[in-house]
Amino acid sequence: IAREEFLELLELLVSRGRTYVPSLAAMEEFHLSLSQCVVLRYHWIEPFVRSLRERLATFHRFFCVADQLKVYTNQNKTRTFIGLEVSAGHFQLLELVSEVDGVLEEFDLPTFYKDPSFHISLAWCVGDLSGRLEGKCLRELQDIVDGFEESAFLLRIQWEQIRCKSGNKYFSFPLR
């Protein structure tokens, strides 16, 4: 859940980013992915969620820091994103991915990327506009993040739960 100060930082970043890509839009929801998007058959949802719950039950809460801006595109290059890459907490996220991948394999679904760049998407635009956002633009945006008064506090994230979305339903797995 985004704090008011985080939304202020986001507005500064998007406003500056729009000087390079006018169609840049702020994300309305924020998440960090531990899997690719997959299609679950209706009759798989309950056993899938049960298996996730069992595999994630032993994990403890932890902190990560997401403070390094990076430009991403989706696999088919139809969307470009500006995201905050995780700079601390990577090991714990890899452990979580390993367990999520185990569940995906049970259902013969694709696992996560081999060398993931854990990040929280902040803004997006249609098409592959990474060339306009990288370089000078990205450096200016990183300067805004680095100079933002509350950034050290805002970009330190406590992981208290893992969520799984299937259709319009959310399933929550609290961490110990």
Describe, in plain words, how this protein is organized in 3D.
It holds the Pfam family HVSL. Keywords: Hydrolase, Lyase, Nuclease, Nucleus. Helices cover 36% and strands 27% of the residues. With 176 residues, the chain is an alpha+beta fold. The strands form two sheets. A five-stranded antiparallel beta sheet has the order 1-4-3-2-5, sandwiched between helices. It has a two-stranded antiparallel ribbon with strand order 6-7. The chain is globular. The mean pLDDT is 96.
What is the structure about, briefly put?
This protein is of the alpha+beta class.
The CATH top-level class label? Alpha Beta
How many distinct domains? 1
| N-to-C SSE string, H for helix and E for strand | HEHEEHEHHHEEE
Could you tell me the radius of gyration in angstroms?
A: 17 Å
Query: How are the strands ordered across the major sheet?
Result: 1-4-3-2-5
CATH topology: Cyclic Phosphodiesterase, Chain: A
* Beta-strand residue percentage: 25-35%
CATH architecture: Alpha-Beta Complex
Q: On the 0-100 scale, what is the average pLDDT? A: 96
What structural class do you assign from the helix and strand content?
Answer: alpha+beta
What gross morphology would you assign?
Answer: globular
Q: Biggest sheet: strands, sense, closure?
A: 5 strands, antiparallel
CATH superfamily: Cyclic phosphodiesterase
GO molecular function, one term: lyase activity
Catalytic activity: a 3'-end uridylyl-adenosine-RNA = a 3'-end 2',3'-cyclophospho-uridine-RNA + adenosine; a 3'-end uridylyl-uridine-RNA = a 3'-end 2',3'-cyclophospho-uridine-RNA + uridine
Pfam families: HVSL (PF09749)
InterPro entries: Cyclic_Pdiesterase, Usb1
